[in-house]
Amino acid sequence: MIQVDLHLHTKYSFDASIHPKTLVDQLYAHPFIKAVAITDHNTVEGYYKVLELASAYQDILIIPGVEISTEEGDLIVLGVAELPPKPWNVENVIDFARKRGCLTVAAHPYRAYGLGDLTKNYDVDAIEVLNGASAPHINRRAENLAKAMGLPGVAGSDAHHVSELWTAYTEIQASSDIDDILKAIKKGLVRVLH
Ligand SMILES: [Zn+2]
Asked: Whole-model pTM?
């Protein structure tokens, strides 16, 4: 069992301020969250910085990821350390992710920049049903969407600033291993908490 914040931003996102060093220190100090997915907007630069710094620490895991601003809305790719080729539309990004054994997650589907009901048209792997930066009724709609689509629901803080870290996280029945975690999410061996 591992507790993971599956959605957060570093200062390499245009709208975020979290320094990679602060993130690594806070993750290491956290009593039970021991893994994070770095999901910056349209860049993997922050992921590489965090990864480099994290190598000096034991027992924490950094999952590569990115939140792509597609033409239709925000789509998170988990397990990837490179950007998909443009044009960035949902279909292309899903295709890119599938070829690499990565997962796609519809980020905060019912908030601004979310895919909304359009999500139903696509073969995403999971729905973000608990986003730390979304209002409860917005998250509830996402939860209903996941149920309607028969997809796993995941959680992440969507932190852009240090004070917003760890407000939501996913408990995954997996070991501290990226492949294992991605497979467990796909199988729905997850629980969302905040
Ligand atoms: Zn985000």
From this structure: 0.97
Q: What is the DSSP letter of 97?
A: H
Task: Take residue 105 and report the two structure tokens written for it.
Answer: 């997650």
CA of 189 relative to ligand 1 center, distance in Å: 23
Q: Say how far apart CA 28 and CA 32 lie, in whole Å.
A: 9
The C-alpha atoms of residue 180 and residue 171 are separated, in whole angstroms, by 13
Distance CA 164, CA 60 (A): 19
Residues with CB under 5 A from ligand 1 (ion): 67, 158
pLDDT tens by residue, 86-119: 999 999 999 999 999 999 999 999 999 999 999 9
Closest of 122, 176, 123, 187 to residue 154, by C-alpha: 187
Q: What's the gap between Cα 57 and its chain centre? A: 22
| Distance set, CA 37 to CA 89, 91, 161, 169 (Å) | 22, 22, 15, 11
* Residue 64 phi, psi (nearest 5): -70, 150
Ligand 1 midpoint to CA 119 (Å) = 17
Helix (H, G, I), strand (E, B) or coil at 94: helix
Distance 69 CA to ligand 1 centre (A): 10
